Amino acid sequence: MGVYGWITKWRNRAFDKQWLWFKTKTFPQVRSICVGNLSVGGTGKTPMVAYLSRHFLDQGKTVVVISLGYKRRKAGNFFATSADNAMTVGDEPALYLEEFNRELGDRFFVYVCKRRAEGVADVLKHKPQTDIILFDDGYQHRYVKAGKNVLLTAYYKPFYQDRILPYGRLREHPEGRRRADVVVMTKCPADLSEADSVRLSAECDPYAHQKLFFSSVGYKEVVGRKAHWQPEIFWQSCDRRVILVTGIASAKPLTDYLKSVNVEVLRHFDFADHHRFTLSELREVEKFYFAEKEKAAAAGLTPPGLITTQKDYVRLLARKDSRLRELPWHYISIMPEILFGREAEFIDTLERN
Question: What is the gyration radius of the CA atoms in the chain, in angstroms?
Answer without folding.
Answer: 21
